Every structure is written in C-alpha cells, then in structure tokens.
C-alpha cells in the first residue's frame, strides 16, 4: 500500500453502520480520510472514529469526491441508486445490501474464500453476501478446498435482528408481555390474546405470528415453488462464492426468538472421503473459525456464546450415519458482525491493499 486510501461509510447511523463504526475503531487505522455519510435527517451528527470526532454528511454525489472505497450499509433501493454513483465518482463501492449480489458483473466476496474476485469488478462494485450464507462460508470454503463440496442441506435458525431494529423491538415487546404469565406458550391464540390485550396486535410486527415462545418456519418473501427468498439466497450465493455452478443445495430458513447470531445445521457431502477429526483439524487452522466441539462436556456453539464476537463458531462435527462422504456441522455467527458489517469491512481492507 503506497498511500492510505480514503474511506466512506454510507449508512453510518443505522444499525449495521453503528456496528461498522465499532469495527473500524477496533482495527488498525489504514485510512487517510474517513467520511461518514447518512440521510439528510442524520447529517450533522457527531461520531468519534479513531479518536477523532467526525460530522456525518448528507448523502449526495459530491459526498463521494476524493473517496477511494465506499462501504454501503443501507437498504437495497438506496444502494441501487447510490453505489453506481459512488463508482462513477471514482470509488470502489462495497455494498452490504442484496441489490447486486447475483449480478454477473459484480463479485460476491468472502475474503477467506474467494479474495481474488475482489479485483474482478467491471462496474466498480463489490457485493457482500447475505448474513445467512455468510454464517457458514468461512467453514465451507475451507472444507471445499480440501475435499471438493458436492451437496449442502442447510437449516437456519435466524435471529430477530436479521429483520432489523423492528425485529429486535418486536421480540422485546412480546417478551415483556408473555414473560408475565408462565402459562402462555401452550396455545398460540393465548399468546395472541395476551399481546392484543397489551396493545400489540402484531400489525407492526415483521411477522404474521408471535415470535416469543415460538419459531416461525419462514424467513424472507415467498418465491416460486414455495421457497423463501432467504432459502434461495443460500443456494444461489453459495454457488457463486464457492464457484460451484451445479452445487446441489436444499435450505430451510427458520426465525427463532434470539436477538443476535444466526445458527445453521449443515449436512455437507463431498467428492472425497473425510473424517470428523480431519474436519476439526482443517477448521482449527482457519484464523476466522473457532471450533467448539466437546459435546460430552456440553461444549458447542450457541448464539448466546457467539453474539458480539467476530469468528465463525463450529461444533457438533460428526460423520453422517447413512450418507457416504458426508459430515454434519452446527455453525453459529453474529449476523450483525461477520454476517454484515465485518465482512463488508474486510472486503474494504482487501481493496485497500491495492493502493
């Protein structure tokens, strides 16, 4: 790096943007200028980054002047408009939304898996994968390099924070009601009635059903064949990141009453034979993967353990009983960190090495 590139963070005052600021502050300062950008209503706010109080500026074309790398932590519709504008103004746009993930001219990058793709950006945009896919990618990328992945069967147990601030608020609101009555939970209608009596009729909830004391076997929007958008992302993004166009993937995505950290059960089938001990050895060598796998002593990853941490945690590693060349895993990752802000920032660090 012959000079320090200038970095912009678009969406600096949002939920993921706030996590991103914390990540920036926790890592080495490799940047020249750091510019914080948000909507006009947030302009003027003060945020401290690497000991310097910075003023948030309003999103505009001119906000990208002099910027080398612009990270976007904003909704799809905002990225669709503004990431190309940032690229036109000379910045490499690193986008955390779903706007460009499946665009063939936009690389979908996980630095531990396909860092070389970050340079293949004809539109000047690099995309960050969905948080569910990202939860397992560091682990699956390492195993694929060793044994050649052929099939994935995945079930996700997704935290409410995956639905944004509204998801977190809804769970807290419902828990405040149902926590007062230990008898609730045996009947969904009883929970609905208790919530309605407390003034919560679910009209402002991200979900059609209560999430407290419940699991909802659907995440995202409905797509063809009864699949959800989250399930389609797991398949399509896994194929693109790993570079396996014909990878067989079956996914079921479930929302659970957990604030932070997505969990996945993974059934992975490979071309070559492998053992649990070999899997533990390979994953143990990965700097961003932590193996916690001693079920005899109740040691395995849980969302409560993982929330707030950067690594991907893997446990319950075992041979499939009836499927050759197959391994079962339980993978947990903080969906706001590695699942969103951290991977975006690691892509930016990757691009920064070009300067």
From TrEMBL:
Its EC number is 1.2.1.11. SMART domains: Semialdhyde_dh (SM00859). GO terms for molecular function: aspartate-semialdehyde dehydrogenase activity; NAD binding; NADP binding; protein dimerization activity. Pathway: Amino-acid biosynthesis; L-methionine biosynthesis via de novo pathway; L-homoserine from L-aspartate: step 2/3; Amino-acid biosynthesis; L-threonine biosynthesis; L-threonine from L-aspartate: step 2/5; Amino-acid biosynthesis; L-lysine biosynthesis via DAP pathway; (S)-tetrahydrodipicolinate from L-aspartate: step 2/4. NADP(+) binds at residues 13-16, 41-42, 161-162, 335. The active site is at 131 (acyl-thioester intermediate), 262 (proton acceptor). Residues 6-121 form the Semialdehyde dehydrogenase NAD-binding domain. CDD domains: ASADH_C_bac_euk_like, VcASADH2_like_N. It catalyses: L-aspartate 4-semialdehyde + phosphate + NADP(+) = 4-phospho-L-aspartate + NADPH + H(+). Substrate binds at residues 158, 255. Catalyzes the NADPH-dependent formation of L-aspartate-semialdehyde (L-ASA) by the reductive dephosphorylation of L-aspartyl-4-phosphate. InterPro entries: Asp_semialdehyde_DH, Asp_semialdehyde_DH_beta, NAD(P)-bd_dom_sf, Semialdehyde_DH_NAD-bd, Semialdhyde_DH_dimer_dom. Belongs to the aspartate-semialdehyde dehydrogenase family. NCBIfam families: asd_B (TIGR01296), PRK14874.1 (NF011456). This is Aspartate-semialdehyde dehydrogenase. Keywords: Amino-acid biosynthesis, Diaminopimelate biosynthesis, Lysine biosynthesis, Methionine biosynthesis, NADP, Oxidoreductase, Threonine biosynthesis. It holds the Pfam family Semialdhyde_dhC. Phosphate binds at residue 101. GO terms for biological process: 'de novo' L-methionine biosynthetic process; diaminopimelate biosynthetic process; isoleucine biosynthetic process; lysine biosynthetic process via diaminopimelate; threonine biosynthetic process. Homodimer.
């Amino acid at each position: 790096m012959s000079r320090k590139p200038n970095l912009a963070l678009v969406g600096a005052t949002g939920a993921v943007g706030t996590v991103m600021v914390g990540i920036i502050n926790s890592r080495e300062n490799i940047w020249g200028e750091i510019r914080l950008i948000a909507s006009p209503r947030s302009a003027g706010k003060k945020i401290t980054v690497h000991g310097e109080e910075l003023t948030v500026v309003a999103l505009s074309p001119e906000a990208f002047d002099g910027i080398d790398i612009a990270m976007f932590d904003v909704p799809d519709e905002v990225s669709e408009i503004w990431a190309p504008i940032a690229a036109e103004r000379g910045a490499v746009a690193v986008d955390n939304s779903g706007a460009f993930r499946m665009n063939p001219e936009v690389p979908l990058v996980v630095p531990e898996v396909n860092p070389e793709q970050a340079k293949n950006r004809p539109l000047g945009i690099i995309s960050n994968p969905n948080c569910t896919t990202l939860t397992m990618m560091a682990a699956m990328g390492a195993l694929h390099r060793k044994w050649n992945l052929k099939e994935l069967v995945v079930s996700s147990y997704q935290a409410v924070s995956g639905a944004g601030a509204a998801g977190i608020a809804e769970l807290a609101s419902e828990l405040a009601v149902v926590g007062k009555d230990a008898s609730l939970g045996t009947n969904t209608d009883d929970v609905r009635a208790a919530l309605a009596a407390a003034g919560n009729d679910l009209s402002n909830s991200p979900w059609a059903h209560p999430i407290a004391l419940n699991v909802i076997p659907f995440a995202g929007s409905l797509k063809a064949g009864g699949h959800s958008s989250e399930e389609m992302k797991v398949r399509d993004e896994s194929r693109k990141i790993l570079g396996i166009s014909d990878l067989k993937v079956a996914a079921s995505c479930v929302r659970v009453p957990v604030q932070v950290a997505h969990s996945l059960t993974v059934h992975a089938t490979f071309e070559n034979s492998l053992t649990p001990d070999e899997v533990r050895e390979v994953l143990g060598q990965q700097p961003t993967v932590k193996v916690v796998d001693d079920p005899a002593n109740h040691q395995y990853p849980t969302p409560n353990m993982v929330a707030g941490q950067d690594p991907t945690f893997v446990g319950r590693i075992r041979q499939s009983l009836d499927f050759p060349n197959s391994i079962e895993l339980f993978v947990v990752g903080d969906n706001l960190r590695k699942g969103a802000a951290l991977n975006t920032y690691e892509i930016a660090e990757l691009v920064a090495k070009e300067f």
